[in-house]
Specification:
Blueprint: E1 2-7, H1 10-17, E2 26-30, E3 37-40, H2 42-45, H3 59-63, E4 67-70, H4 74-88, E5 95-99, E6 102-106, H5 115-130, E7 134-139, H6 142-155, E8 159-161, H7 165-173, H8 185-193, H9 199-203, H10 207-213, H11 216-225, E9 242-252, H12 255-276, E10 278-289, E11 301-312, H13 315-329, E12 336-344, E13 347-348, H14 349-359, H15 363-386
Helix pairs in contact: 4-5, 10-11, 12-13
This protein binds a DNA duplex through helix 8, strand 9 and strand 12.
Length: about 425
DNA sequence: TCTGGGGTCCTAGGACCC
DNA sequence: TCTGGGGTCCTAGGACCC
């Protein structure tokens, strides 16, 4: 038995926890740079605001006071997510965090009494302890648990249980094939051509036919819909890449601006790698102009990777590689709107070091690497203790440059910053 | 005027090996 | 007419997820 716990309108719900005056009102949260809508409360959905809708198109609602809008406050959402996940751990020994707002509880063959009652108890507790409303889907496989969760949300219930055969068939029959987990926009088109409309239709397809015409992933989806668990023994592997990218507040054609932006992103990526104990083998840098500008001929998008001689998480080495990549893709007279830095082929740093010792007996270079490693540790420690950017690299430039993203409507970091705690009068 | 960020996996094809 | 068999590694592109 699996339970999928999914937070309702997660980012919007986080904002409402500290703004009870917004309960019952239409709330939306915007992406970075206040670009598009990424979360909507139920009330906002009823205004016809869709996911990914550009902000400027819904601004009129905001100006009329009908919709309340927030810039994204990831520090708050990450902390609230952590609280929700901690709560879930009280209820199941195996909590698989699938994204910032959802987790699979894997009960295996464990008995929890009446599943629906247990599911409701989980939802009640999460709400009482964190203020976040959740929906619960219960089924024999992860894909079916996703279906059940959607179904609960659609019907306005908190819990949907499709463990028994008749419930499974009943829900699948009403479930659109395009909403099935693993069936995206592109696959829906050919599937419909074969006459498949609902999740039930999909579940009746011969799995091997599915593999032949699509891929092994879709074959597994079909099996999962029939109750055969195929995604349950995923060993949580360390991620293989780290990406940091941002759209700019305003476009720039200056190499020096891009150098600063890329250096900032590369620094952030290296910090992430160190915190996870991994080292990168290559640094990929990508830049592009705006896709939406009228003059399509001037659109430019290009990226390239620079290989590191020895895999590393040392900011100094990563900065040098990122700069080299940037210089290879930069061209004059383009209005750059976004830059991306990706650390590629991440491997465990201890493993990489022992290999290096095995094949490289240059003790001087090893000593230098060790010293550089201690320097990075000290940087991280200082910034952790005294706040981000207490010490930083000159290459990152000053605070608040032109390319920095707009985030003009951000709520306080209520739970993570001592100066921004909510005040109760 | 104004359009996000961060991941994963699979497949096909080419280069190369014996 | 007919053109081996079995592998690895890498990359680009396409699909998916939230």
């Amino acid at each position: 038995m699996f339970m999928l716990i999914d937070c309702n309108s997660f980012f919007a719900s986080c904002e409402r926890v500290f703004r009870p005056d917004l309960v019952g009102r239409a709330v939306v949260v915007l992406s970075n740079n206040d670009g598009v809508v990424v979360a909507r409360s139920r009330e906002a959905k009823s205004f016809g605001i869709s996911m990914g809708e550009p902000y400027f198109r819904i601004k009129r609602f905001v100006e009329r006071g009908e919709v309340v809008v927030f810039s994204s406050n990831f520090e708050l959402y990450s902390d609230m997510s952590r609280r929700v996940m901690r709560t879930l751990e009280q209820f199941c020994p195996s909590v698989d965090i699938y994204s910032i707002d959802e987790a699979f509880l894997d009960f295996g063959g464990m008995s929890v009494g009446e599943p629906v009652v247990y599911g409701r108890e989980i939802a009640d507790t999460v709400f009482r302890w964190t203020g976040i409303p959740v929906s619960v889907g219960i089924a024999a496989t992860r894909t079916l648990a996703k279906v059940a969760n959607e179904s609960a949300k659609k019907s306005g219930d908190v819990v949907c249980d499709i463990l028994c055969e008749s419930d499974r068939l009943g829900v699948l029959r009403e479930f659109d094939i395009g909403d099935v987990w693993g069936i995206g926009r592109r696959l829906v088109v050919p599937l419909r051509r074969y006459g498949l409309r609902t999740a039930l239709d999909l579940s009746k397809v011969e799995p091997l036919w599915m593999r032949k015409h699509f891929s092994i992933m879709q074959e597994r989806t079909v099996r999962e819909l029939c109750g055969e668990s195929c995604f349950d023994n995923d060993i949580p592997r360390a991620r293989r890449s780290i990406q940091v990218s941002r759209s700019f507040g305003s476009a720039t054609s200056e190499l020096s601006d891009l150098e600063e932006a890329v250096a900032s992103f590369a620094t952030r990526a290296a910090e992430k790698a160190r915190s996870e104990g991994t080292v990168a083998s290559a640094v990929y840098v990508h830049v592009n102009t705006s896709w939406y500008k009228k003059d399509k001929d001037s659109y430019y998008s290009n990226g390239t990777a620079t290989t590191l001689q020895t895999p590393t998480s040392n900011t100094i080495e990563i900065l040098a590689a990122a700069r080299k990549s940037l210089h290879q893709v930069f061209v004059q007279n383009k209005q750059y709107k976004k830059a991306t830095v990706i650390l590629l082929n991440l491997v465990d740093s201890d493993l990489a070091l022992s290999q290096k010792k095995l094949f490289d007996d240059d003790s001087y270079s090893l000593l230098r690497r060790e010293k550089a490693g201690r320097l990075m540790c000290s940087l991280d420690e200082i910034n952790r203790k005294f706040g981000r950017r207490t010490v930083y690299f000159g290459a990152e430039g000053e605070q608040n440059p032109a390319w920095q993203a707009n985030r003009n409507m951000m709520s306080p970091r209520y739970t993570t910053n001592i100066d921004e705690l909510p005040i109760v009068r």
